[in-house]
Amino acid sequence: MDTADSPRTTPPPAPAAATGPAAPPMPAASLRLLRTAGFVSNFDRFCITPMLLLIGTQLGVPLTTVMLAASGYFLAYGLMQPVWGLLSDRLGRVRVMRLSLAGAAVAAFCSVLAPGATVLIVARVAAGAFFAASIAASITYVGDTVPAAVRQRPLSELMTAFALGTAVATVIAGALAHYVSWRLVFALPGVIAAYLIVALRRLPEPPRAAPGALLAPFKVVLRSRWQWYVMAVAMLEGAVLLGFLTYLAPALEAQGASATLAGAVSALYGVGSMAAAQQVKRLVGRWTPVRLIVVGGVQMAVAFGLATASQSVPALVGCALLLGGGWSFMHSTIQSWATALSPAARATGVAMFGVALYVGSALASALAAGPAEHHAYREMFLTAAVLTVPLTVAAAVGRARYRS
């Protein structure tokens, strides 16, 4: 990248393991800890969705009230991304993960003990604010410690863990809440977060540039033209994929499928993502990033094409699996690109990338709510298929022109 995009910084030494093609790009134990942190963050973020109706019934409040716990969580999760990124650049990646997970554990256990809706809403908002640090910090850690040429391999491992957290939350949370208790579901991420507070002490803190003025990382990030470009791509990606993905389950339910079946089909997105991530790991270094992006875009276009043609169970099963594959091919490539843009303020840059992704997702979900209310799912998925084309072109052309 142009040196004008970031001030001089001392890059961390490349791990010796990354120099050999057969060796892992980072220690397996370190990667397991990062994967666990990402898994628990995504599990906690998505576990409440299948439990909303049951929680409302047991607490004696309407669904709209319980929805505040979910929407407040997502809002806090998105807004805290730049805050944790800034703190990570100043305090260190591992320290911020441990501090945030301590707060997340407390918030999770408060959710377990919540006597009513008000306490539960406050606890879930706090959980969203604290769990927001884990995924961005994990990605940044990989960016700090793994050479760019092989960085996408461990990032694909992280994507697998993130997808697993989403899938497990979607499928398991509802079953545990129905047959045991919804409070147990909130206890699980609390226990894992408490374990990680201790376990992450074994993770070495990567070198980073000495912190300057408080807002210096934002200045570094926001003066990079490529950072703005990648953030724009991330916003469009969040809208096209994550925003419209939300409506797979409602589209099935509108055809008469049960909520359980609709949730299980939606969870296949995680299965597709995990399977594709294993392929991406093997293809990194053999395929160019542009080729990976294009293959991901084609999968997404075909997926939304299937959903446009039919909202039957077989069609949406194929759609969910292909969307997961498209996410692993395209998003892990763009994510790897984002870690290279502002090395002097990497955590802040990755956090701003995340903000753009979540903003795009939220905007698309909100704009699609009207058509979804009228069951206009065919038109909605056709729109997503069409938008996949400029997304793929913008991501592929930008990545081809970018010079690190």
Task: Describe this entry's structure for a reader.
- This protein is mainly α and 404 residues long.
- Helices cover 77% and strands 0% of the residues.
- It has 16 helices and no strands.
- Helix 10 (225-245) packs antiparallel against helix 14.
- It is globular and about 55 Å long.
- It starts with 27 loop residues before the first helix and ends with a helix.
- The model is unreliable at 1-23 (pLDDT under 50).
- The helicity comes to over 70%
Shape: globular
The assigned structural class equals mainly alpha
| Range of strand content | under 5%
DSSP summary: helix tally: 16
Rounded to the nearest angstrom, the distance between the terminal CA atoms is 4 Å
Q: Stretches where pLDDT falls below 50 for ≥5 residues?
A: 1-23
How many runs of DSSP E, i.e. beta strands?
0
- The mean pLDDT is 85
Largest sheet: none
Rg over CA atoms: 20 Å
Q: What is the N-to-C order of secondary-structure elements (H for helix, E for strand)? A: HHHHHHHHHHHHHHHH
GO cellular component, one term: plasma membrane
Subcellular location: Cell membrane
Organism: Streptomyces platensis
Membrane topology: Multi-pass membrane protein
